[in-house]
Amino acid sequence: MPPTRADAAPLSPRSGLGRLLSALVRKRVRAAGLVIVTLNVVVALLAPAISPHDPLDQDVARRLLPPAWLAGGGPEHLLGTDQLGRDILSRIIHGSRISLLVGLLSVVLSLPVGVCLGLLAGYFTGRLDDITMRIADVQLAFPFILLAITIAGVLGPSLRNVILILAVGGWVIYARLTSSSRRPGVWAAGASASCSGTCSRMSPHRSSWWARSRSPR
Question: Which of 29, 69, 90, 183 is disulfide-compatible with 51, CB 3.0–4.6 A?
Answer without folding.
Answer: 90
